[in-house]
Specification:
alpha/beta, FAD/NAD(P)-binding domain, 2 domains, five-stranded parallel beta sheet, globular
């Protein structure tokens, strides 16, 4: 019996999972490799950092998701190198061979060379980071409640977010509502409505570029207590301070960087040409320009469509993952490969508990109706009935009672194995 072709998928995010699902009925052996044993629903990660959702509400074990797919296996491990010339990848130092490779490793934070940003800013790209940020914010408020020095207290209660894209806007809104509503009641002697500040810093002239066609987002955030700074560039970041290009200094113990993405560092080991943001310049078929058996999807591709680069979103990852899987099968069966074309199903972002902006089918929506659309879309794509029910329950509780259910400072690690 001839050996089945082996397809290795690096990453269990949207791109990797959607590629694996597409290969469910194919006569191939599929192996997904990821450093975590769970898939994270990244669009709701900011709600974990804002004490709105428990981490388990936005994650599902990979083995649970694939257990009905007979041709699929999972290996937990860190990808330390990609060697397309030899058709191998290194996982925790061990070599794993493949016939076809789909690279779906996602992205990490880009700091654009701003001095001190990487060393002193929190980021929001994983569940661990979201829990760490939630713990830090709650600890700072606890410390401020017992701080006699007004200057130190003000610094503890200043929360600065750099980046006016979807992550920065959604987190700024969620954080402001956490501080000015439930935490205000938890700390009646602290008077957070007067002392705390949430600052959103954006280098450009508007927030949510490509989603919000006007000034709705900035006006909405300002209404719920966010200090929105447009046309404001960060010069450098130090411990306890953000230095702006205009000379102003923001004294803060909490600087959050949500200003950009780049490819995972391990992709440099592939030895192929990458963009400045460590993305692959792929063919229209999503193949590497140097190695046709290697396909790249999601945040790792620099893909031009209609003369413009695609914005890296979950939908891009899903659609490109499916096309890459279809093209793997086309190669195996000696059939023509399909060119990838992204079908824009819309973009949206939420701004607090009952407002959002959305561009869907060429139409622009704002306010409560856009928020309802946002709720439905995110619940629809959230994997697992139990997750959907839990998230819906938390959202309903927050909406009806202005409460957050996860105001807990929890340890990230245990000293015991």
């Amino acid at each position: 019996m001839a050996k089945k072709p082996r397809v290795v998928i690096l990453g269990a995010g949207f791109g990797g999972l959607w590629a694996a699902r597409k290969l469910a009925s194919a006569d191939v052996d599929v192996l997904i490799i990821d450093k975590n044993n769970y898939h994270t629903f990244l669009p709701l990660l900011y709600q974990v950092a804002a004490a709105e959702l428990e981490p388990e509400r936005i994650a599902q074990p990979v083995r649970y998701l694939i257990r009905d797919q007979a041709n699929l296996n999972f290996q937990m491990g860190a990808i330390t190198a990609i060697n397309p010339a030899e058709k191998t990848v290194a996982v925790d130092g061990e070599s794993v061979g493949y016939d076809y490779l789909i690279v779906a490793l996602g992205s990490t934070t880009a700091f654009f060379g701003v001095p001190g940003a990487e060393e002193h800013c929190f980021t929001l790209k994983s569940i661990d980071e979201a829990i760490e940020m939630r713990n830090h914010i709650l600890r700072k408020i606890e410390a401020a409640a017992n701080e006699p020095d007004p200057a130190k207290q003000k610094q503890m209660l200043t929360f600065a977010i750099v980046g006016g894209g979807a992550t920065g806007v959604e987190y700024a809104g969620a954080l402001a509502e956490l501080i000015y509503q439930p935490l205000e009641r938890d700390y009646p002697r602290l008077s957070l409505n007067k002392l705390a500040r949430v600052i959103l810093i954006e280098a450009g002239s508007q927030l949510l570029n490509g989603i919000d066609n006007g000034s709705y987002t900035a006006e909405r955030l300002t209404k719920i207590g966010v200090d929105v700074r447009l046309n404001t560039k960060v010069e450098s970041v130090e411990a306890g301070r953000i230095n702006l290009a205009d000379g102003e200094q923001i004294l803060t113990d909490t600087a959050v960087w949500a200003a950009g993405i780049q490819g995972q560092p391990v992709v440099k080991s592939a030895g192929v040409g990458l963009t400045r943001g460590s993305q692959f310049e792929v063919l229209e078929t999503l193949q590497s320009q140097d190695y046709p058996e290697m396909f790249v999807v999601g945040d790792l591709i620099r893909f031009m469509q209609d003369g413009k680069p695609l914005i890296n979103t979950a939908q891009v990852a899903m659609q490109s993952g499916e096309v890459a899987a279809e093209n793997v099968m086309a190669m195996i069966n000696s059939k023509p490969l399909e060119s990838f074309r992204y079908y824009d199903k819309g973009m949206m972002a939420t701004i607090g508990r009952n407002a959002a902006v959305a561009n869907i089918g060429g139409r622009h929506f704002t306010g409560f109706f856009a928020w309802l659309i946002w709720l439905f879309i995110h619940l629809f794509f959230l994997i697992g009935f139990r997750n959907r029910l839990g998230v819906l329950t938390n959202w309903a509780w927050n909406y009806l009672f202005y409460e957050r259910v996860v105001r807990l400072i929890m340890p990230l690690d245990s000293s015991k194995e």
